[in-house]
Write a structure and sequence with these properties.
The protein starts with a helix and ends with a helix. By secondary structure, it is mostly helical. The chain contains 15 helices and two strands. α10 crosses α15. The chain has a two-stranded antiparallel sheet with strand order 1-2. The longest helix is centred in the first third of the chain and has 29 residues. A hairpin with a 2-residue loop joins β1 and β2. It folds into two domains: 120 residues; 83 residues, Cytochrome Bc1 Complex, Chain D, domain 2, CATH 1.10.760. Bound molecules: heme C (2 copies).
Length: 272
C-alpha cells in the first residue's frame, strides 16, 4: 500500500514538473525579442470618422469587444484598444497591427490577423488610431487572469500560437493611401483586409467551412448582395452561421461605393 502511494506521489510530481517545463518553454517563446522594426506612417493625423467605420468593417470590434475595451477571444485576451491607442504612438500602434510586433520587440500571436492587416494603408491605420483616441478612456473589460497566462504559455509551447513575427514579412507593407473603390487595386486590397481572415488568401475558402467567394457569389444578384451585406441574410432563407454576424454587423459600415465595387470585383473573379 505504502509503495503504491509513493509511486502515485512520484507520478504526480513528474507530471507537475512536465507541465512546469512546458509553461516555462511557452513563456520563453512569448518573451522572445524579435526586434521592433522601424515603422513609419505617412501623412498627417488620421481621420477619426474613417477610423470609426473601419473598426467595424475590418472586424476589430468583433474580437476586441463591441466597445473596443478588450474581450476573451478563445482563451486569449484581445486587449483594450482604447488604452493601447493612448499608450502607443501611431507608429507603435501601426507596427503592432501590421507586423504583429509590440514596442518591446515581443510578437503578438496569429490570434490577431496581422498577416491580413500587413497591407493596411497608412491613412487607414492612422484613422483607426485617431478614432480610438477620441473615445473616452475605459478600464479593461477583460482582465488577464492566471488561466489566460497558462493557456497562452501552453499553446505557445505546443507551437499552436504562432508568432506573427514569423508570418508577416518585414517587407510586406501597405500604400500611403488606400486605393479608391472601383480602381483595379481596390478589390484585392479591400478583400485581403475584410474577407481573407475567413475566406483565405486568394479568397479560395477554408476547410473550416467558408466557401470560395468566386463560387459563392454566383447565386447573388445586386439586390440579394445588398441584403446579405446589410442584414446577413442570404437570398434563399438558408441559415448562415459566422457570415450572419459579418453581414449584419461588419459590412453595413461599408460605403455604397465600396459595396458596389465589392460586388463587381467578386463577380469578376475567375471560378476555381
Ligand atoms: C480575429 C480576431 C481579431 C481581429 C479581427 C482583430 N484582433 Fe487585434 N488582437 C486579437 C487578439 C486575440 C490579440 C492578442 C493576441 C496575443 O496576445 O497574442 C490582439 C492583439 C492586438 C494588438 C496588440 C495589443 C497588445 O497589447 O499586445 C493590437 C494593437 C490590435 N490587436 C489591434 C487590432 C486592430 C486595430 C484591429 C482591426 C483592424 C484588430 N486588432 C482586429 C484579435 C483580433
Ligand atoms: C469572420 C469570418 C468571415 C469574414 C470576415 C467574412 N466571411 Fe463570408 N462567410 C464566412 C463563413 C463561415 C461562410 C459560410 C456560411 C456560414 O457559416 O456563415 C461565409 C459565406 C459567405 C458567402 C456565401 C453566403 C451564402 O449564400 O451561402 C458570401 C457571398 C460571403 N461569405 C462573402 C464575404 C465577403 C465579400 C467578405 C468580406 C467583405 C466576407 N464574406 C467576410 C465567414 C466570413
Amino acid at each position: 500500500m505504502k509503495s503504491v502511494l509513493a509511486m502515485l506521489g512520484v507520478g504526480a510530481a513528474m507530471t507537475a514538473a512536465a507541465v512546469g517545463a512546458l509553461i516555462w518553454a511557452g513563456n520563453q517563446q512569448l518573451a522572445k525579442d524579435f526586434g521592433a522594426l522601424p515603422e513609419t506612417v505617412a501623412g498627417g493625423p488620421g481621420d477619426p470618422a474613417l477610423g470609426a467605420r473601419l473598426v467595424s468593417v475590418y472586424g476589430c470590434n468583433s474580437c476586441h469587444g463591441a466597445a473596443l475595451t478588450g474581450e476573451d477571444f478563445y482563451g486569449v485576451v484581445a486587449p483594450n484598444l482604447r488604452r493601447r491607442a493612448r499608450e502607443w504612438s501611431c507608429e507603435d500602434f501601426a507596427r503592432a497591427v501590421r507586423h504583429g510586433l509590440r514596442p518591446d520587440g515581443t510578437s503578438i500571436s496569429w490570434a490577431m490577423p496581422s498577416e491580413m492587416f500587413a497591407a493596411m494603408a497608412d491613412n487607414e491605420i492612422a484613422a483607426i488610431h485617431a478614432h480610438l483616441r477620441t473615445l473616452p478612456a475605459a478600464n479593461d473589460a477583460q482582465a488577464i487572469t492566471l488561466k489566460h497566462r497558462l493557456v497562452k504559455a501552453f499553446f505557445a509551447a505546443m507551437g499552436e500560437l504562432i508568432p506573427n513575427a514569423v508570418l508577416v514579412r518585414a517587407t510586406d507593407r501597405g500604400p500611403a493611401v488606400a486605393p479608391a473603390p472601383g480602381t483595379p487595386a481596390w478589390g484585392p486590397y479591400f478583400t485581403r483586409l475584410a474577407c481573407a481572415e475567413c475566406h483565405n488568401h486568394g479568397l479560395g475558402g477554408s476547410p473550416e467551412g467558408s466557401p470560395a467567394l468566386a463560387d459563392a457569389i454566383q447565386i447573388y444578384d445586386w439586390p440579394a448582395f445588398v441584403t446579405l451585406t446589410t442584414t446577413g441574410r442570404p437570398p434563399d432563407g438558408r441559415k448562415l452561421r459566422l457570415m450572419t454576424g459579418v453581414g449584419a454587423q461588419r459590412l453595413p459600415h461599408m460605403t455604397d461605393a465600396e459595396r458596389r465595387a465589392l460586388f463587381d470585383y467578386l463577380k469578376s473573379l475567375p471560378q476555381p
